[in-house]
Amino acid sequence: YKIYGDFKEATTALLKNDGIFGKLNLVEGRWQDVFAEAVTESRVASIQKNSLEAVIKRDPEFALRLFSSFSERLRQSDEVIESLLHREVSTRLATLLGNLSERFGRENGSGTLIDVRLTHQDLANMIASTREAVSKVMSEFQREGVIENRNRRIAILDSSALTEHASRLSGLSVDGQTSI
Prior knowledge:
The protein has helices spanning 49-58, 60-85, 89-104, 120-127, 131-143, 159-168; strands at 2-4, 8-10, 24-25, 30-31, 105-108, 111-114, 147-150, 153-156. By secondary structure, the chain is of the alpha+beta class. It folds into 2 domains: 2-83, no CATH class; 88-168, Arc Repressor Mutant, subunit A (Orthogonal Bundle). It is elongated. Keywords: DNA-binding, Transcription, Transcription regulation. Pfam families: HTH_Crp_2. This is cAMP-binding proteins - catabolite gene activator and regulatory subunit of cAMP-dependent protein kinases.
């Protein structure tokens, strides 16, 4: 996560196994101020700029994986920016839940369980909203049978309804065409 201006915390990424944390400016050689918090048991390692440069020069396959990871993070950042352009919290939340389901979802008997424990505040930090607004929308999604909370984990019960929420509320139809 990153802290902006008036101490507003924004979650910038959820990492999976072998995820890379931190933002090194290889040209200037300094790290940007970002923070991490583990939501599962984790191992962390650090690397100095000169060591990283040496590994990149010596191991092109590692360099490709590293740049692929950076590319994925950039794509995720673009998705966040696009999502923030939508004014409705429900649109942003439905989009986020769909993305989390794709990345961290595990099929179970009644749907897809997002296998990461997230609070409403965590979700709010990911979509630039408030905990109260997220709680309200989550309750609406639960009443509609779209999701279910299970021990601070979210289960997607109706992924097509979630997709419909994400697209309909943003002015797009399910097939990606603009609706009027």
